[in-house]
Amino acid sequence: MGKPNRSNFLHSHVFCLITLCFLGIIIYSNSLQVPFQFDDEYSIIKNFNIRNIYRPDLIWEFTPSRFITYLTVALNYHFHGLNVFDYHLFNSVVHLVSAIMVWWLTLLTLSSPAIKDHKTAQSASLIATFVGVVFIAHPIQTEGVTYIIQRAASLATLFYVASLSLYVKSRLLEESGNEVRERHFYYYIASLITAFLAMFTKEIAITLPLMVLLYEFYFFRMRKQNNWKCYMFVILILPIIPLTMLTTASLKFSGMRMVAPAISNVSAWRYLLTQFQVIITYLRLLFMPLNQNLDYDYPLATHLFEFHTLSSFFILALIFIMAIRSFRKYRLISFGIIWFFLTLLPESSIIPIKDVIFEHRLYLPMVGFSLFLVSTLYVFLAGKTLRPLAITLFILVTIYSVLTYRRNMVWKDSFTLWNDAVHKSPNKSRPYNSRGLEYSNRGNFDQALSDYNKAIQLNPNYAYAYNNRGNTRNTKGDFNQAISDYTKAIEINPNFAEAYNNRGVAYGSKGYFDKEISDYTKAIEINPNFTEAYYNRGVVYYSKGSFDQAISDYTKAIQLNPRYTDAYNNRGNTYNTKGDFSQAISDYTKAIEIDPNFAEAYYNRGTAYGIKGNFDQAIADYTKAIQLNPNFAKAYNKRGLAYYRKGNFDQALSDYNKALEIDSKYAETYNNRGVVYFLDKDYDKAWQDVNKAEELGYKIHPEFLEQLKTASGREK
Fold first, then answer.
1. Which of the residues 87, 131, 190, 368 could staple to 340 if both were Cys, CB 3.0 to 4.6 A apart?
2. Which of 157, 126, 238, 233 lies closest to 188, judged by CA?
3. How far from 703 is each of 379, 528, 548, 706, 709, CA to CA, in Å?
4. CA 58, CA 60: separation in Å to the nearest integer?
């Protein structure tokens, strides 16, 4: 028997990798512009802990047990701000690499001592490729890839599978007895490192030590020697589990959102009973990935002897027994089933989590399902030829790919996503609330109010729905009703910082400035990192003439969000009002550096330059502001004033005319143009402009008015 052709071996592997990558790129090509969705708002858009990559302590403070996940988010933000393309690109690459790791793990498994002499190992390349392809193409993976913040699941899976694969590679090299044996220790160290990364990416990685023991039992057990590396791996990794839990406020998993107030009395036992039915739903979605839903309306089980609960329990028990009984004859199938159950344990056992079901929780268990599906089809279809197996899997993967592409189309914007959820969960309040928010963002306030009303009808204690309805009413100018909604939200949840902030805005619209400041202060007391509340309170302090307090609040907002352009701009305005023009110019410049299209910052800096007598620089800034906003009447007016100060009356008149063309009721510009007409001795036009300015309520300078009377020889 001749030696295997190494060139063909490498070429087949390269072809497999290209196939995985090409398929993944195609089916997720329509997900790269999907906007931030759902929890992305709080985890990314409004998460100021990830805004400074040089402050990893803030990321750690936000969620220690998912530090690696949010570190990657911080890197995305550092280099690309809130450009969704780059976040999705990262997620897609993670998905591709995860699939490659699954492919590699399958290849390694098929060369393990327990499998390598079986018939299955002869088709290792084909089986591994299809396991990877099923993993990458299955539509259930869309939530773990397209939903940006759920990179926690996909990234943890990457590290999890990589760690196990490296461990297996180390064990295989150790037993190989050839010249590369000494390299096994490097793979072992790499396995420990990736295990550590997995543990601090998402809590689902806590099953990794058990998975290593399980793998040893399944695929290395026939070697009757003690395996110190297996036990050492578990000993080294297990202490990380309590560490990730103890770094949180409680012993519960920090990253998993705990039970909502509406179901706060759910017990661990009741949650477990519910999970029996949930897992059956998961299995249905794996075998028939139809009617996927972001927000399932799933009832809580009440007792074991309910028909659905008891029948689900028996079905799962039968599947588990089948896995045990098939251990010797169909080891890959058995391992795939046990992988599925073991990796579901962190989120589908006795730890109550706010949402009992989410599709992204299947991302890691999908490894087991992929192995089970391909191995089972191999057993039943791979006879004398592999053609029936290949054709069946090709058709299946094609169907999966089409469904994945179509599911990503549902994710294309918030409206299509939540509209889909409303139709599939018509009796659940959250989809209505979320669709209402999207209606409101689109300016369709009546439809938004209708959805919020429906959400509140379904759940009268839904604080977020009251808050969002208050926001819509506030936008419509119905401040009293808005305040009523915010107050109700606060009654339901006294620690609802956002509701206090929003009620403060409504109080400010009614002129109740003391109540406004009180609400902002309460919001900050609840959430000391509430950047928007500091900014809003700074605005009120400025309007009340408390400039030092305003500067203090703007400064705090900037510390929390170093890219907060409005805070820099407003702090610059405050310094400007105090006469500290150099500091004002510095703040405006910083705002412009962050956002080169910030027209108002150019305008304000031009004003500061003008006060300092730097008219050329002022004109340059006003010109830039006008380029960015051609209808910026104030910029034309101020540039006209700067031209006037330089003695360029024709340019000044041109700018004043343009400002009045944009805003025919701009009183100050009438006054300014009147001055230029006066200097040009065109007294009739000067009087017309002065009269118009006074008619619009502008106070004409008495000295100028007297000079105009004297020069023209007449009264108004």
1. 368
2. 233
3. 101, 52, 35, 5, 10
4. 5
Q: Domain 418-645 classified CATH 1.25.40.10?
A: yes
Q: How far apart are CA 606 and CA 621, in angstroms?
A: 5
Residue 435 near residue 415, CB atoms below 8 Å: yes
End-to-end CA distance of the chain: 115
Distance (Å, whole) CA 513 – CA 506: 10
Q: Which of 587, 636, 646, 589 is nearest to 614 (CA)?
A: 646
pLDDT in tens, 414-423: 999 999 999 9
| Among 43, 32, 13, residue whose Cα is nearest residue 91 | 32
Computed on alpha carbons and rounded to an integer, the radius of gyration of the chain in Å comes to 33
How far apart CA 128 and CA 135 sit, in angstroms, is 11
Spell out the SS3 assignment of 384-437: CCCHHHHHHHHHHHHHHHHHHHHHHHHCCCHHHHHHHHHHHCCCCHHHHHHHHH
pLDDT digits (tens, 9 = 90+) for 503-549: 999 999 999 999 999 999 999 999 998 999 999 999 999 999 999 99
Residue closest to 138 by CA, chosen among 408, 476, 466: 408
- 410 three-state secondary structure: helix
Alpha carbons 384 and 536: distance in angstroms, whole number: 74
CA distance 28 to 49: 29
Are 492 and 473 in contact by the 8 Å Cβ rule? The answer is no
User: What residue segments make up the domains of the chain, in order of their start?
Assistant: 6-28+54-410, 418-645, 665-716
- CA 377 to CA 161: how far, in whole Å? 23
pLDDT band at 259 (very low <50, low <70, confident <90, very high): very low
Place of tokens 């310094």: 575
Give every CB contact of residue 120 below 8 A, 6+ residues apart in sequence. Answer: 110, 127, 332, 375, 378
- The residue type found at 712 is S
Tokens standing for residue 145: 């890839």
pTM of the model: 0.85
For residues 25 and 130, the answer to whether their CB atoms sit within 8 Å is no
Give the pair of three-digit tokens for residue 476: 């419509």
Q: How many other β-carbons are positioned within 10 Å of the β-carbon of residue 3?
A: 5
CB 574 within 8 A of CB 566: no
CB 142 within 8 A of CB 408: yes
**What one-character DSSP code corresponds to residue 257?**
-
And the tokens for 396?
A: 């299946």
Q: Which of 132, 335, 99 is nearest to 219 (CA)?
A: 335
Count of CB atoms situated within 10 Å of the CB of 163: 27
DSSP element (H, E) containing 17: helix 6-27
